Every structure is written in C-alpha cells, then in structure tokens.
Amino acid sequence: MRIAVLGLGEAGTIYATAFAAIGASVNGYDPSDVPTPDGVSRMPSGADAVRHADVVLSLVTAAHAVTVAGDVAGHLEPSAVYADLNAAAPECKQDVAAALGDAGDRFADVAVIGSVPQFGAGTALVVSGPAAERAAASFRALGADVEVVGVRPGAASRRKILRTVFMKGLGAVITEAMDAGVAADETEWVRAQISAALTGGEQALDRLDQGTRKHALRRAHESEAAVDLLASLGVSPFVTTGVASRHSALSRGPAQDLEALITAFAELPTAAIGDARDRLGMVAPRVRSVWPGPRLAGRVVTVLCRPGDNKGIHEALTRARRGDILVVDGGGHSSRALIGELIAHRAINRGIRGMIIDGAVRDAAALQGAGFPVWAVGVSPAGPYKSGPYRIGTDISLGGVVVHHGDIVVADDDGVAVVPLADAERVLADSRAVVADESARYQRILADRAS
Q1: pLDDT, tens digit, 9 for 90 and up, residues 209-240
Q2: Kind and range of the H or E run holding 146
Q3: Which of 2, 46, 192, 279 is most buried when burial is the number of CB atoms within 10 A of its CB?
C-alpha cells in the first residue's frame, strides 16, 4: 500500500508513522520546517507526494483544505482515494470534493472522533463520501474503529460537529473554571470539584484543560461551524456561541486584564472600532455627547429604567465599582431628565467614569464644569420620577445596540461603540490595524498633495 500524507503536524506524523509501521510506503509533504517522521520519504511538493499513491491523507487544516485539494488534483493516480481528515464544516468538505474535479468520485470525508495524540492512529473515525468504504479499509488496517455513514461528502463532518457542541463546550467551561480558580486563589479546590465530577478524574481534567488551550484556534473554527449547524437546525446556539468565543480568546494567547483592555480602547476612535466590527455595535447618533470633547472607555454597568424614572440610577451608583460606566436604557425618552448636577457629583465621588443614557439629562453646563462625561439623547429641565421599577445588570438596548453587563463601551465626539467583552481582544487588534492602515493612507494622500 502506498500512502501520501499532506501535512506533517502532530496528527499527520502519527498517521504517517503508523502506516509506515505496518509496511506501507509513505510519502509526506509539509511546507513548514517540521521534522520528517521515521519511515517517511519527504517530498518537495504536494504533487510529488501524491504521485503513485493509493491513498492520500489531507491533514493541512480546514483553512487550506480546498486549496491543497485543487493543487494536487491533477497529479492523483486514476484509482487513488483522497481522504480529508481536517476538522471542518460539512460545506468545506463538499468544497474539497468539488476542488478534486474528476477525482471527486474518489473522495472520503473522514471525521476524527477523539484525540489523536491520546489514542494514536487507532482513534475512532466516522467516514462518508463516494470512497468511504475504501478509505475505511485503510484505517481499519491501523486498528481504528471506523463507522461509514453514507456516500455524501460532509455527512461524517456533520456528525463530528454535533459532537463538538458537547466536547468543545466542556473544554471551554473547564478552562474558564480553572482560570477562575487561579484568580480566586482556589486552584486546588476547583480542580478537586471538577475532577470528582469527571470520569477519569484529574487526568481527564488536565487533558481537557491543556488540550483546549493548545488547540484553541482549530477548535474555535469547529465551534463556529457548530453554531451555524445548530442555527440551521432551529436550535438557538447560546452556549455554543460562548464556547466559540472562549476558544477564540484562548487562541490569541494570554488574555489581557480588563483594565489593560480598557486603557488600550481609550486610545482608539469609535470610528475605527466600528470599522473593525463591520459597522456593527455602533449606537444610534441620537445618543450624543452633552458637551464637546470628552472621551470615555470602561466597563459597563447596565441599568434599565422606566422612561422618565431614575430610581435605578440611584441604586446602580451604590453597586458600581470605581472605573465603571453606567449605561442606561431610558427608552429614548427625552421629556424628563434622568440625571443632573447632583447625581453627577455623587458619581464622581464613587469613581464612576461617566454615563451613557438613552434618555435626557439636565444641568448641561454644570456637567461640563464638573468634567463628567455624559452622552444622552437630549437636555430637558424637567426632573425625573423616582418610583421605579428598574433592573440592574440585565441586558439592555442602547440606541439599537444590545449591551451586556460587563461589556466595554467607548465614546467620543463621533458617538458610542459597544464592544462585547468576549470579543474585545480581537476587536482591539482589528481596530489598531484599521488605525494603522488609515494612517498610512493619510500619509500617501499628503505625499500626493505635496507632489
């Protein structure tokens, strides 16, 4: 049996070594400077690797799966099976089959059900596609438990993604719980609680915790595919969306602390943040700075008030922490002011950075004199009612944007941008890239003018 392995990362190396161990002739290719597995002939290109192969294994990651299939399609043997083992959405597997052209009828969608580093080449597999049975026979030769689920590309990966909803969710919850244990100086107690609840105890905990961190980027993509699948099935993917965000955050390395994130966002214009978020999360322009020039960035404390009633704001001032920003859903009501000079000075005494109110305020000159940043829909001399009801810490709407307690809000003369905390690090990096790009373009425009 002649095997070609495209991608000699961790999983690719395990499969290449296993096939070589049972006497197969194995060629491998990887453009990266990774070690060549024992018993494998390293080829200078993917085309060279697949030439003369009976079975081709693609382990190049989902991001490159379609491109690589297209690149090698014309070099496959007429009878060669092309098995794609990349963790990807069903639609991606269908695109791989299409990229193979005439070789698409020899495609196998192979979904790996378990940890290859833990279980080796015997890891359980689910396989579908026109060449599913032929591919299954090759992996059974390695001792793997293989289930064939039909001839449609993507069917196997669909099952894997259904499993992802649970497995990636479990890993994400464990990493977050462990981080919380460290932050609370209760690491050992949290470890003991999780271990006691898991079959496999601490070994299972460490595998899920460490494995989730190590493979966070790939698992983020899998979880995003799971979000799409659940939505297509009519299942609201609330938990899985959070799981995808957790993996995305882990993939970017050690998380910045909240204050560092806020300090970084304070240096960015809201316009750049809006561009980085594809123009989403921008509060309607009716919410404007009450006085010119202030800038604001901080952690959100959400307040939901009955229109014209500020009892909730009074209560929120007693609960908010130093450095927080009160973000108030006042229903866009502009006839009665929800805050004025006295509340502003109470907020200053509490260390509140500012307020953003989908409602009216009063004492505009005094707010400016105090240097207290406030954004609102207008100014009215009429005072508020103080009877409630209200809610603090619930999700609210601010100028057409959903705001969660604990999100980051940034405001300047242009307006207000809301950044979900789960996505804050990505938005920060993308916003900085927007600023850098615009700065470079501005310099080119000035150079053109000078010339």
Answers
A1: 888 888 888 888 888 887 887 888 887 787 78
A2: strand 146-148
A3: 46
